[in-house]
Amino acid sequence: MVSRELDSTGLELSLFPVIFAFCTPRDIATDERRVEALAPTHAKTAKFFRASAVA
User: Fold this and answer.
1) Which residue ranges make up each domain of the chain?
2) Model pTM score
């Protein structure tokens, strides 16, 4: 697992990428699509993003 670490104003955040690929042999346009999301590596990062979320 390769994590991405961010350090902003003394706050260290750590995320790891999750990649979703759409693999359908019938549609080449869909076959080339993928979505990359970042998930928190530890509880401190998860807490930061939950607190930052707009309700």
Assistant:
1) 4-52
2) 0.60
